[in-house]
Specification:
About 35% of the residues are buried. A hairpin with an 8-residue loop joins strand 5 and strand 6. This protein is about 45% helix and about 15% strand. The model is unreliable at about 190-200 (pLDDT under 50). It has a five-stranded mixed sheet. It has about 400 residues and is α+β, with helices and mostly antiparallel strands.
Length: about 400
């Protein structure tokens, strides 16, 4: 008993430094892989930062198109601008998934770094990690769920995704500032820095990076065909493919899901034009077909990242507005579908004046399929698919 007491007394720290050393968790946790390397972490971090910034900027474009900013409206041209930016948004997000998990694995020993804070820059780095890692995981997981239209979470995807984007990018900027000198030094150095005892290296750091970036590239390659038609046959991981769907065009929401079949097929259907107009109009489907028709090849581009071109034919919106002697500058297009977040769409002057903004009646040489918005749908250049209102019955 006395010997046990003496042993405990001898193990007690006699100074603050000894107390800190005794509390060091790395005494019990050893990381011996040469892949836990500062330069590897730096290369992954740079790639991840670029991907996140591309995602953030293209996401801002998408959000501002759906929720216009005061004093600024996106123009109708170039017609495929949103198709490019949203495809890039989803592609860069998918590429970031394996890079993020590889980065987390490489820097895992840093979680056991001791002491936990060693200076102001180190404290900033540590504080930025929870929102950066948590926000990054949240963005990528919910983003993939949205691509597949799997809404297992109780919150509205668009609002939460937008809010967390700002949190994540803010944490990323702070993290970059805190790690700038370390990253710059690590990228310029090829000296091996290993946490713990070195062991046999079964894979080189270069091979590891090639594997990570190759995986990200393959994931992107097998999905990007959903928006880049020449690679459509390779879109094995994509939930939508060009050329697959009614009239060779994918859909997100069917007429059955929207509950509009009876109203859309009603023989009494009419399109009303009212609001600030010289004369109100009420046009039957036959009246719309009797008006001058225009054809335009335009893409449907959805926030999920898929897009596909269609050859649309119908009445130019500005012809309809001239016929009604429209005097207002803003046009709202309404759908037969009720109780939907996207049952109406607002068009700015650039879109209403564009000659390719149509109330489409045909698609790819055939009468509009009901899942594509029969009897009449809006199609306009450079707009998200959710704003290309289907089953239109009123223009205000």
């Amino acid at each position: 008993m006395n010997s046990l007491i003496e042993k405990l007394k001898s193990s007690r720290p006699h100074s603050l430094k000894e107390a800190i050393d005794l509390a060091d968790p790395t005494r019990f946790v050893k990381f011996s892989s040469p892949l836990h390397h500062k330069r590897t972490a730096a290369m992954l971090g740079i790639s991840l930062g670029v991907s996140f910034f591309i995602c953030f900027l293209t996401g801002l474009i998408s959000h501002s198109m759906q929720h216009p900013i005061a004093l600024f409206d996106w123009p109708a041209r170039p017609a495929g601008f949103y198709r490019f930016t949203q495809g890039l948004h989803v592609a860069s997000g998918l590429f970031a998934i394996p890079v993020l998990f590889a980065k987390l694995w490489v820097i895992f020993p840093k979680l056991f770094e001791w002491p936990p804070v060693a200076g102001f820059a180190h404290a900033l780095e540590r504080l930025s990690l929870p929102p950066l890692i948590g926000g990054g995981l949240f963005m990528l997981i919910t983003g993939v769920a949205n691509i597949n239209q799997w809404y297992f979470f109780p919150f509205f995807f668009t609002t939460a995704h937008y809010a967390f984007a700002w949190i994540t990018i803010g944490a990323l900027i702070i993290h970059i500032g805190a790690k700038w000198s370390v990253t710059k030094s690590a990228v310029g150095s090829r000296k091996t820095v290993v946490v713990g005892e070195p062991v046999d290296q079964h894979i080189s750091r270069r091979g590891f990076l090639y594997g990570v970036f190759g995986t990200g590239g393959l994931v992107t390659l097998f999905t990007v065909g959903q928006s880049f038609s020449p690679l459509g046959k390779l879109a094995l991981l994509a939930p939508r493919r060009p050329g697959v769907g009614p009239q060779k065009l994918p859909i997100n929401r069917s007429a059955v899901a929207a509950g509009v079949i009876q109203k859309a097929n009603a023989p009494t259907y009419s399109l009303k034009v009212d609001g600030k107009v010289g004369r109100s109009l009420e046009l039957s489907l036959a009246d719309l077909h009797a008006m001058p028709q225009r054809s335009a090849t335009l893409p449907i581009t959805c926030v999920e990242g898929w897009s596909a071109n269609g050859r649309w034919k119908g009445v130019r919106l500005n012809d309809l507005l001239r016929l009604a002697d429209a005097q207002g500058k803003t046009v709202v297009v309404h759908s037969i579908e009720m109780n939907s977040l996207y049952s109406e769409s607002v068009l700015n002057e650039s879109h209403t004046a564009d000659s390719d903004t149509l109330l489409a009646l045909e698609l790819n040489g055939e009468p509009l399929h009901i899942d594509h918005g029969y009897p009449c749908r809006l199609i306009s250049p450079n707009r998200p698919g959710v704003m290309q209102t289907k089953w239109v019955n009123r223009v205000t």
